[in-house]
Design goal:
The chain is α/β, with parallel strands linked by helices. The protein has 8 helices and 13 strands. The chain has one domain. The strands form 3 sheets. The protein has a 7-stranded mixed beta sheet, sandwiched between helices. A 3-stranded mixed beta sheet has the order 1-2-4. It has a 3-stranded mixed beta sheet with strand order 6-10-11, with no helix packed on it.
């Protein structure tokens, strides 16, 4: 890790090897199945940018592992009166540079969902992404996140905190919290990888007035050993066990459905 000059002088330059060392320190390894969220700016300057981040994850899990990135396309306007338009081949994600670079990688496979697609690379890509179009909710049973939990996979937060953890939406859906989904389905038209039209009724996320606080469980997840943290450069890395996170959070939400709402200080 080296220091930069000029306006970035106070920021360390992070290399791919620095990232790989950080990933190993929190427990990511060969053969793992991992969903990852990223913020490049959190680390200061990363040599190689988004591609270095992607390569650090892929090289850490190796050819028998699989990486999964959120290539989401949601918008607050989406609903029965404003259905989303989605072409799995071309619709850009709204989740930043790294997922966009990831979905364009050779061999990447993107799930078919009008607002919450995920893209996978690795040995279990097809298994993770297939059938998403038949799931009635964005992150419910049969979605890539549901399969991640069933596989004993991991969730990696690279430079972002738990506010960005889409896996928590899976937990909300499985716990059937009352605030999370729109009451009426939306008729959605999707174009698959072969250019075919796929039509489904989908329940989309409800953008309610209550802000959420996904950072609330962090202390408990650390105490229980479900999450580990490390620092690389000026950024933090968090790694969570998907199945244990789901077990903890779904049970908590079933007892206390408003647990993840910011207004709930309990």
């Amino acid at each position: 890790m080296t220091r930069l000059g000029g306006p970035m002088a106070d920021k360390p330059a992070v290399t791919k090897d620095d990232l790989k060392a950080g990933l190993a320190s929190v427990g990511l390894g060969l053969g793992d199945v991992v969903a990852f969220h990223t913020s490049l700016s959190a680390f200061g300057y990363i040599e190689g940018g988004a591609d270095a981040v992607i390569d650090s994850v892929l090289e850490t899990v190796g050819p028998q592992g699989t990486a999964l990135a959120p290539t989401l396309t949601f918008a607050e306007k989406h609903g029965p009166q404003s259905p989303p338009e989605f072409d799995v081949r071309t619709t850009p994600s709204v989740t930043g540079r790294t997922p966009e670079a990831f979905r364009k990688r050779s061999g990447a496979v993107r799930s078919l969902h009008p607002t919450h697609s995920w893209t996978a690379l690795g040995a279990r890509s097809l298994e993770l992404t297939s059938g998403h179009e038949d799931v009635a909710t964005p992150c419910g049973d049969g979605s890539p996140l549901s399969k991640l939990a069933a596989m004993g996979g991991k969730i990696l937060m690279l430079g972002v905190d738990l506010h960005s953890c889409t896996f928590f939406h899976y937990c909300e859906e499985m716990a059937r919290v009352p605030y999370h989904l729109q009451k009426l389905p939306t008729y959605c038209v999707m174009i698959d990888a072969n250019g075919r039209t796929v039509e489904r009724d989908c329940y989309l996320h409800f953008w309610g007035p209550e802000p959420k606080d996904f950072t609330k469980p962090e202390g408990e997840l650390l105490r229980l050993g479900i999450m580990r943290k490390a620092r690389v450069g000026s950024g933090e890395i968090r790694l969570l066990d998907a199945r244990k996170t789901a077990d903890f959070l779904i049970e908590r939400l079933r007892r206390e459905p408003t647990y993840l709402l910011a207004a709930n200080r309990g």
